[in-house]
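DEPOSITED CHAIN:
***
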Amino acid sequence: MKVGIYTLGCKVNTYESEYVINKLKEAGFEINDFDAVNDVYIINTCTVTNTSDSKSRKMIRHARKLNKEACIVAMGCFVEYEKDNISEILPEIDIVIGNKDKSIVVDLIKDFLESHNKINRLYDDFDSSFEDMYLDKYNTRTRAFVKVQDGCENFCSYCIIPKVRGKCRSKKLDVAVKEVETLVKNGYKEIILTGIHTGNYGVDLGINFATLLRELVKIEGLKRLRISSIEVTELTDEVLEIIKNNKVIVNHFHIPIQSGSDKVLKLMNRKYDIEYFKEKIKKIREISKDVSITTDIITGHPGETDEEFKKVIENVKEINFSKLHVFPYSVRKDTPSSRLAQIPDYLKKEHTDKLLLLSQKLEIDYMRKFLGKKLEVLFETSKDGYSYGHTTNYLSVKVIGTIPSSTFKEVTLINVEYPYIFGEIDNED
């Protein structure tokens, strides 16, 4: 039977979908293009913004239009967010799975195909244990995600994720280490640690994120270890010491700031102020002056007046990020921010556009720092006579020619061709 799977949202969803794909293949299902006529469609949904909700609904309805007789599976955060009335909103769904029981989706599909009885696997509360998923292979041969943590208890005032993902829970240390070891043995050069609140790993196990890093950097054959995202408050002195003493951890950190205004940060219920953030970034740059620091920023959160936005611009420039991921504030029902006075949409758009322009300038300025330098690139794909890859500090590099994926090459960086840096590989004998 043919299955199409569509994934929205974060890297955790990417990992979970990859796990489902592997389990489907093991069970004899054929993975097919989502837009084809399939027997089963799986939509792994997201609810971080209103746009995410809309895309989730659209893909579920699109699947039903593709094949009126197919089994439609909807799982993940949007389903969890709308669990009280999901059947009324989307009667197209045959199997509903929230953020628990994704690991048994293949069994649930088999049950439905036999009985044709709709299945609902939504719960009033989450089990406190981590739902184990384990990957030994990925669709690509270069980089692999490893989900080490789930859930969040930060309770930022704008965010619905603690409600739909539940409390913090972690993959057991020995299991996480074994998974990374297996992926490295199977040829993966770069491992990316991911979670809903990755840096809070181990809080339920009596250990911490530094414990995990300390074990992973010892793995023989691991070339690069990347952290998908980490809160600034979790870059403890212990974590920074491990980063300082291990070249396996890449020279790039994605650290969400969310706002450059102390007033807005307080309204967001973030756990730091701007000075704390700046001091922590200073410590990281003392370890490596060329480190790439990327971030997330929400524009248009309640309280972000033009005056506060000026502070955002000033602080973003001072911190000198290498790239911004900009998200207009999206009202999420049942969150504290939804009950505050909202700012006009035109102001949100104006602030968003200004930050996007600033992001491009910061990114190009960061790229130019490396022109004329030689950096190691891990090549991932080839297309139309060019090969593409990333440096340890996450510069996107392209070169002429076809380089096999999962190959490291020393590349001299020649010119910025945004969003890439064009490079040349030295002639080899």
Q: What stands out?
A: The radius of gyration is 22 Å. The first helix runs from residue 11 to 26. The domain at 127-250 is CATH 3.30.750.210 (Transcription Regulator spoIIAA). The mean pLDDT is 96.
